[in-house]
Design a protein that fits this description.
Blueprint (H helix, E strand, L loop, with lengths): L2 E5 L11 H10 L4 E7 L19 H14 L5 E8 L6 H11 L3 E4 L19 H17 L20 H17 L3 E4 H10 L7 H10 L3 E4 L11 H13 L10
Parallel strand pairs: 1-2, 2-3, 3-4, 5-6
Helix pairs in contact: 4-5, 5-7
Length: about 260
């Protein structure tokens, strides 16, 4: 089965294309099932407005749009409604309420910030062991909740961390072992893969992280992390992702929902 559960919309302010254009591209590319997982809004305090996600008032429109497309194209493709969320414990009750209210099918863990967003360091820019272990503690605790269908770009810390040192190995081991223990798939992120190919700079997926996955054997999946409809049509990149995981002896999960 050909699927992708990591699709964004223009509501996150850094994606292009209409919701329907993503669906049509996925159909053209031969996908059986896709999920929209745009960046979750959060009820931030003191009026903070994020520049990388929808605001809470936009959530209803987002959900209704995806549900409408699911009905319109139900004979051609299965469309699931989701969100990409950080693990912010203080907002979890709010998140659970919204999942129930809007009939959200799944959430994936895209942990871009620790504790909260305002005033925090983006986890793709962390450079110290202290920041690294905070990220790791959050990821591990999040998997233990059972809330998240999978962990998006679990090795995002290598986007900014200078070298894959002993701290990175310890953090990676803890994340990978917890993923295996909780049966939570780790995502081989194709957006990061394309950046490393095009820019010539190794970020994520980071080879040493995935070599450790090959040893420990957690469940794994591929995520396009589509921010434009054309991402669905990059057949070569999708094939390279599959081949990379197969070369490591890792089997991709057949279906997640």
């Amino acid at each position: 089965m050909k699927y992708n559960y990591h699709t964004h919309t223009t509501r996150c302010h850094h994606a292009k294309g209409t919701d329907e254009e993503f669906v049509l591209a996925a159909i053209e590319a031969g996908f059986d099932e896709i999920g929209f997982a745009d960046h979750s809004p959060w009820p931030y305090e003191k009026g903070f407005v994020s520049h990388i996600r929808m605001i809470p008032d936009e959530l209803e429109n987002y959900c209704s749009s995806i549900e409408s497309l699911g009905e319109k194209y139900k004979d051609k493709i299965s469309i699931k409604l989701g969100l990409e969320c950080e693990y912010f414990p203080k907002y979890v009750p709010w998140l659970k309420e919204k999942i129930k209210e809007h009939g959200i099918d799944f959430i994936i863990l895209g942990h871009h910030f620790c504790v909260d967003e305002p005033g925090r360091i983006y986890n793709g820019d962390i450079t110290t062991p202290e920041e690294l272990y905070t990220f790791c503690d959050d990821i591990v605790e999040a998997m233990e909740t059972g809330l998240f269908m999978y962990v998006a770009h679990p090795d995002i810390f290598m986007r900014g961390y200078p070298v894959f040192d002993s701290h990175c190995r310890e953090v990676s081991r803890r994340i990978i072992e917890k993923a295996k223990e909780t049966n939570t798939p780790l995502e081989y992120n194709l957006l990061g893969f394309s950046h490393s190919i095009n820019d010539g700079k190794q970020g994520y997926p980071y080879p040493d992280f995935w070599k450790m996955c090959a040893e420990i054997k957690p469940p794994v999946t591929i995520g396009i992390d589509a921010h434009r409809p054309e991402a669905y049509l990059d057949y070569g990149l999708y094939r390279k992702g599959i081949d990379s995981l197969k070369a490591l002896g890792l089997e991709i999960e057949e279906k997640l929902i």
